[in-house]
């Protein structure tokens, strides 16, 4: 069975004078069939795995997001003792993830692709409840968030990239494994999340570093605490103390 978005493409299909369909339509049917077959194959494989593997994948689809959140906090805490750019990138990592999620939702609302657990005939039942109608499939929010978080964390904390990238790929695969996404949903989600995270860091790291440096010199205790002391011997604390003294002399 061809997925919903493919059927939508047929609404505007082109026909040759002899009444045959154009090559683009034939290609869309072929790709849709391949994707549905791959979905069935992965779901069949999922049902053949031990119950503990199924349960682990079901849990991972949600727990993985919580683990990324914990890593965001750890990366920020480490960056408080780094240079201003390191702090900026650590803060931009979750912000970029949020931007990627919003973009994913906008795309999802414009492409009404039904979930494969309803649309693909002959497939086994999903391992978790099929999302309600209207909770569209393309692209996968989980995959988008996971990729953006993984890349953002890898940029902020390069040594942890060996962990975050496999985490994102496993989370994306788990969404197909449990039966709620097509393979192309998660593939595009991974690409979207990666692109948005890289773009946000590239565009905002330099101005973010200037903001971080200003925060470290701030006289506001909460702002200064959030930005952290910076590298040992960098002088941020001394600069802040000097401003405080100048302020007391004026009084």
Mean pLDDT rating:
79
Q: Which of globular, elongated, flat, extended, rod-shaped describes the shape? A: elongated
Following the backbone from N to C, one meets helices and strands in this order, namely HHHHHHHHHH
Number of E-state strands: 0
Percent of residues in beta strands? under 5%
Q: Helical element count?
A: 10
- Kindly, what is the distance between the CA atoms of the first and last residues, rounded to a whole number of angstroms? 78 Å
Can you summarize the main beta sheet?
A: none
* Structure class: mainly alpha
> What is the percent of helical residues?
over 70%
Unreliable spans: 1-31, 238-251
What's the gyration radius in Å? 24 Å
């Amino acid at each position: 069975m061809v997925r919903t978005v493919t059927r939508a493409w047929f609404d505007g299909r082109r026909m040759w004078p002899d009444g045959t369909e154009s090559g683009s339509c034939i290609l869309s049917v072929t790709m849709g069939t391949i994707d549905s077959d791959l979905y069935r194959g992965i779901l069949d494989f999922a049902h053949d795995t031990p119950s503990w593997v199924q349960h682990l994948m079901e849990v991972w689809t949600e727990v993985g997001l919580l683990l990324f959140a914990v890593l965001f906090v750890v990366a920020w805490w480490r960056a408080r003792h780094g240079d201003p750019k390191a702090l900026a990138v650590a803060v931009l990592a979750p912000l970029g993830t949020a931007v990627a999620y919003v973009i994913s939702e906008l795309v999802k609302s414009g492409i009404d692709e039904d979930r494969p657990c309803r649309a693909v005939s002959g497939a086994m039942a999903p391992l978790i409840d099929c999302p309600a109608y209207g909770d569209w499939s393309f692209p996968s929010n989980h995959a988008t968030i996971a990729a953006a978080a993984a890349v953002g964390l890898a940029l902020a904390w390069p040594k942890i990239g060996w962990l975050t990238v496999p985490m994102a790929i496993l989370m994306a695969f788990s969404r197909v494994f449990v039966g709620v996404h097509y393979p192309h949903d998660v593939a595009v989600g991974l690409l979207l999340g990666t692109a948005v995270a890289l773009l946000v860091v590239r565009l905002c790291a330099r101005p973010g570093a200037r903001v971080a440096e200003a925060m470290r010199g701030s006289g506001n205790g909460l702002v200064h605490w959030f930005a952290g002391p910076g590298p040992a011997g960098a002088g941020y604390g001394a600069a802040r103390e000097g401003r405080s003294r100048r302020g007391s002399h004026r009084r």
